[in-house]
Design a protein that fits this description.
Blueprint (H helix, E strand, L loop, with lengths): L5 E4 L5 H12 L3 E5 L4 H15 L3 E4 L6 H15 L4 E4 L14 H29 L2 E6 L12 H21 L4 E8 L5 H14 L3 H9 L11 H12 L10 E4 L7
Parallel strand pairs: 1-2, 1-4, 2-3, 4-5, 5-6, 6-7
Helix pairs in contact: 1-2, 1-8, 3-4, 4-5, 6-7
The protein binds nicotinamide-adenine-dinucleotide.
Length: 260
């Protein structure tokens, strides 16, 4: 049922977002990808999505901390693809430090990229989806949208904000055939997770091995990282027919972390 739909995925040059883009393309959606990285590698990714799945894949390099660039991206997605049916808000960054020493510029960047960008893309896509009479918005929140961990104040605040925004938006568009949901992964093995291991080790005075086993997987009852493909499969489910009456929800995929 997703064949021919037009999807915009923020933060999709890597990790979970790339997984979403590939999964949507596999369902027959045209996709606009977004994110940072080496220009040659992004072009290779764009072409591989097109050739692997026979869909159109476009790239927009908007910085998700800048409202005017987000406006340009949504306008370009709508003009280039002929609309936006599916919006996946996924761009995100992390910075780990104790609150009393937390760099102000890192706080501002995390709130802008992880939370405020979701407000901008959502406010811009709702009118497009309303006009098309159908829409799906999937936000990548986190287990940290439900519970907290030390040294991640900005991230936890932003992700709790995404949870609230998801619910508020869902209620506003509930009669427009548009659903809005958040996926709340525990730890998924991606570059974002790999990069925070040395900082967490430093902040907690641990070895990197201890950070993986005693911090990251300590709360997961399954003692497993989720895979990018599992997270993407949940997003595709929410976009499909079976997801029609699921809205305003937080979908945990965290190995039992937040059940405790
Ligand atoms: P990642 O670092 O692999 O990918 C992040 C993506 O966001 C990249 O494409 C990057 O270029 C893009 N990005 C970063 N800053 C940007 C900006 N200013 N403008 C545009 N794009 C920008 O990370 P990931 O692990 O795949 O994380 C994706 C999302 O999933 C994030 O929102 C993250 O908070 C969330 N998440 C991840 C995990 C995990 O364990 N990996 C767990 C829970 C939630």
């Amino acid at each position: 049922m997703l064949k021919g739909k037009k999807a915009l995925v923020t933060g999709s040059t890597s990790g979970i977002g790339e997984g979403y883009a590939r999964a949507l393309a596999a369902e027959g959606c045209d996709v606009m990808i977004n994110g940072f990285g080496d220009a040659g590698e992004i072009e290779t990714l764009r072409q591989s999505i097109e050739t692997d799945h026979g869909v159109a894949c476009h790239y927009h390099g908007a910085d998700m901390s800048k409202a005017e660039e987000i406006e340009d991206m949504v306008a370009s997605a709508s003009a280039t693809m002929g609309g936006v049916d599916i919006l996946m808000n996924n761009a995100g960054i992390q910075f780990v430090a104790p609150l009393a020493e937390y760099p102000v510029e890192k706080w501002d960047a995390i709130i802008a990229i992880n939370l405020t960008s979701v407000f901008h893309t959502t406010r811009l896509c709702i009118p497009i989806m309303r006009e098309r009479g159908w829409g799906r918005i999937v936000n990548t929140a986190s287990a940290h949208a439900i519970v907290a961990s030390p040294n991640k104040s900005a991230y936890v605040a932003a992700k709790h904000g995404v949870a609230g925004l998801t619910k508020a938006a869902a209620l506003e568009v509930a009669r427009d055939n548009i659903t809005v949901n958040a996926i709340c992964p525990g730890y998924v093995w991606t570059p974002l997770v790999e990069k925070q291991i040395p900082d967490t080790a430093k902040a907690r005075g641990m070895t990197e091995e201890e950070v993986i086993n005693d911090v990251m997987l300590s709360a997961a009852a399954t003692k497993k990282f989720a895979t990018i493909e599992q997270v993407a499969a949940l997003a595709i489910f929410l976009c499909g027919d079976a997801g029609e009456n699921i809205t305003g929800s937080l979908q945990s995929i965290d190995g039992g972390w937040t059940a405790q």
